[in-house]
Amino acid sequence: MKNALRFSVIALSCGAVFSASASSTLFTNVDIFNGTKNKLYEDHYVLVENNLIKAISAKPIEAADALVINGEGKTLMPGLIEGHGHLLLNAGTLNDHENNRTIEELASRATVNANAVFQSGFTTWRDAGGLNTGLRKTIDSGMLEGPRLYTSGAFIGPTGSHADFSNLTTPNQHLNGPQTSMGRNNVSVNTDTVGEIKAAARQNFKQGNSQLKIMSSGGVASSFDPWQLNAMSAEEIGAAVEVADAYGSYVMSHAYSKKAILRNLDAGVKTIEHGFMFDGEINKKMKEKGAYITTNMTAFSPYLSQIEAINSNPASKRKAESATKAFKNYISNVKKYQPKWGFHTDCVGDVTSCIKQTDHTIYLAGKELGNFYTLKGMTSVNGEIVKLSGVMDPYPEGKLGVVEVGAYADLLVVDGNPLEDLSVLGANEKWFDAKERAPALDTIKVIMKDGKIYKNTL
Ligand SMILES: [Zn+2]
């Protein structure tokens, strides 16, 4: 009976009347960016009931008992979604995490990072390796304000790969071996056989992580691998995909070289991470396979060499220089082929440096790929990506990254039109030289997650 009352709807000529419960919020006088269309729907009404969007209308919605928020003509949009971040990797170099930081230090700093990104408007965060599910449980229980978390658990990759945080002198750490802190704490595991890959993948899902992250090619910030390395064979990538399939989820794969990217797509990997050698052939295969790409646009920043993980290591510096040359067609190819592209910051560092890096990434993406493409990447496309986790999705009730009836009520009200000006979301041309800012952005007036208001300065 209670439910019947709550959901009764009477359509009137002036709009719709909802007999709303006390846990309803009605936004009036907002221009909507819905996450998928390159336009604002002016002067609209949005009704949120419990944790989902119940109604969207150009006509007034009357909802008895609902809390009314007058949007004053500002923009209502989906909460932002980070497509590839690392909340637990909050020290300096990869080696620094292994050698100088206890898990206690990394975990407590991760809570600070989670709260800061949330205040910056990120209501969902896909963590691309290192973080397990403890932080998610803490946030979801209400003890800490932070984003929804889609975690990958331990990075999976072979000895000497981009997943290898150990020292030159560390014995092979194999799986959750006791030799390294990163291995012990399921941050990163070295897997050199198909059996070890499957065991690591199963361990990650056992922990409740929602997708797998593999390191199938070399990287720039890591110590032992040329970026050109095709680190995992087709058989090894296939082993990770097989376990992900068994859990109804998917694999995200760090892949730089064209060979590695194509190998991943052939094996059934659903999201290519970085993917700097993206071109027409890759685009065609991505379309065939229903795959996505997410890229850290800071790779194209004039300030890239100032990043600590790169400039503290001469080998990484040299790698960055040669990689920049090899990746020179990325931007023109993405503009030409318009793949399903997710926004991705990939910050490794403390809260201050990661706020700066995110702001600069938003700026670069907008400048190089356009504001609408960037915004789609930060909302609806990343919303589709996190939902690839299927059966392992920790938030299965609604869509994310869109303003649609039935979607989760993860919403921002921002002062300005982000399609015209990304600085309302923090975009900043400067990176390391940017002025330090508080995590909370004045231009974000309302932050709602799961139907609950966390900020309202209207
Ligand atoms: Zn990453």
What is the compact description of this entry?
This protein has 458 residues and is α/β, with parallel strands linked by helices.
Describe the fold and architecture.
This protein has two domains: 2-79 and 403-417 and 442-456, Urease, subunit C, domain 1; 80-392, Alpha-Beta Barrel (TIM Barrel), CATH 3.20.20.140. It has 15 helices and 21 strands. The chain has helices spanning 2-7, 94-100, 103-119, 134-140, 181-184, 194-206, 234-246, 258-267, 280-289, 308-311, 314-326, 330-337, 351-369, 371-378, 380-386; strands at 9-12, 15-19, 24-32, 41-49, 52-57, 61-64, 67-70, 75-78, 80-85, 122-127, 148-150, 155-157, 188-190, 212-215, 251-255, 271-274, 292-296, 341-344, 411-414, 444-449, 452-456. Strands 3, 4, 5, 7, 8, 19, 20 and 21 form an eight-stranded mixed β-sheet that branches. α6 (194-206) runs parallel beside α7 (234-246), α8 (258-267) runs parallel beside α9 and α14 runs parallel beside α15. The model is unreliable at 1-14 (pLDDT under 50). The structure holds zinc ion. Zinc ion is lined by residues 84, 86, 128, 346.
